[in-house]
Design goal:
10-stranded mixed β-sheet, about 350 residues
């Protein structure tokens, strides 16, 4: 069930904390029982462990509801170091395009691990998804992934017509660390270009601030809900070890002046260490006059809708996917300028 509420009252309403979904709690307990101790690992071993975890999470799924579907894929090369996968639903029409950045703490995840979510989203939203294989830390720390993101956006604008995409209806999005890259890239593009390249911004469970910012969700959800506080600190050390936590190019919540961004959807989950910085970012954009839709799951954890181990696993996954797809279709239905004809305060609960 979906409930519309005033975004300005959102923070107060959310403090009536709903218990975590029982099936999700069971899955998390099983995962915790099977996990090993990270303390004895070298940094290199931990990097490989994180990357293997994403792969194993996908391989553990005997089936994923809704897959296979009719979406067709094609792997392409954007630049010598940069590849992508195109997802196109069955249609002969010119379709809107979503450039998508996978999550994984800038260290793990890949086009392959997030393939199920991209296939589901492409069909549900009737959109071409361009999933980017950006360079990962620690081998390639900041700003490599951000540079890849910007390169991919410009490539999509120039080449969309070659694969049936409409560059005039271009969206940018990602989950978790990928949403961080999307947010920063959007801020840079919209602050420096007069032409509106982006028509929509999709930020799923985004990293918008440094772990030392002391957001309450870092205390409330420190352990036991999938993504944990110590892991987030480690991710930051891999990605941006020599960057100030106040730099808006890694912490977009720290941006002083918000540019004219396109309509933006920010998704958060109650049992997520990143919950409060996601909420704060949605509020920051709304207060700056951006058309913001805030989608909150009161009984779920970080990135449940896109993570390979949980994609399509719970009813809330399907509900969230449907809301995201409908939002994309609504925003991209015509060539509107950013925020034209849209309300600035919309919030949705997924139940």
């Amino acid at each position: 069930m979906l409930e519309n509420i005033d975004v300005m009252n959102q923070r107060i309403t959310m403090r009536k904390r709903k218990p975590i979904d029982a099936a999700l709690r069971h899955l998390l307990d099983e995962q915790a029982a099977n996990s090993g101790d990270l303390a004895p690992m070298t940094n290199e071993e931990r990097v490989q462990m994180v990357r293997s975890m994403f792969v194993r999470s996908l391989e553990s799924r005997a089936s994923i509801p809704g897959l296979p579907n009719a979406v067709e894929t094609r792997d392409v090369e954007i630049a010598p170091h940069l590849a992508a996968r195109l997802y196109r639903p069955p249609s002969t029409a010119l379709l809107p395009v979503l450039v998508y950045l996978h999550g994984g703490g800038w260290v793990g995840g890949s086009v392959a691990t997030h393939d199920p979510f991209c296939r589901l989203l492409s069909q549900a939203a009737e959109i071409i998804v361009v999933s980017i294989e950006y360079r990962l830390a620690p081998e390639y720390p900041y700003p490599a992934a951000l540079e890849d993101t910007l390169t991919a956006i410009h490539w999509a604008v120039k080449s969309a017509a070659e694969w049936g995409g409409d560059s005039a209806r271009l969206a940018l999005g990602g989950d978790s660390a990928g949403a961080n890259l999307a947010a920063v890239a959007a801020n840079q593009l919209c602050a420096t270009t007069k032409v509106h390249l982006l028509c929509a911004l999709l930020l799923l469970y985004p990293v918008t601030d440094h772990p030392n910012a002391n957001h309450p969700s870092y205390t409330e959800n420190a352990t036991g809900y999938g993504l944990e506080v110590n892991t987030m600190h480690w991710f930051w050390k891999q990605y941006a070890p020599d960057v100030s936590p106040d730099d808006p190019n890694v912490s977009p919540l720290r941006l002083q002046t918000v540019p004219t961004l396109p309509p933006t959807l920010v998704a958060t989950a109650e049992y997520d260490v990143l919950r409060d910085e996601g909420i704060a970012y949605a509020q920051k954009l709304a207060m700056s006059g951006i058309a913001v839709t805030h989608l909150h799951a009161p009984d779920m954890n970080h990135n449940f809708v896109a993570f390979p181990g949980t994609v399509g696993c719970f009813p809330q996954c399907n509900t969230t996917l449907t809301v995201i797809a409908h939002w994309l279709q609504s925003v991209l239905r015509s060539e509107l300028l950013p925020n034209e004809g849209l309300t600035h305060k919309t919030s949705i609960f997924v139940r």
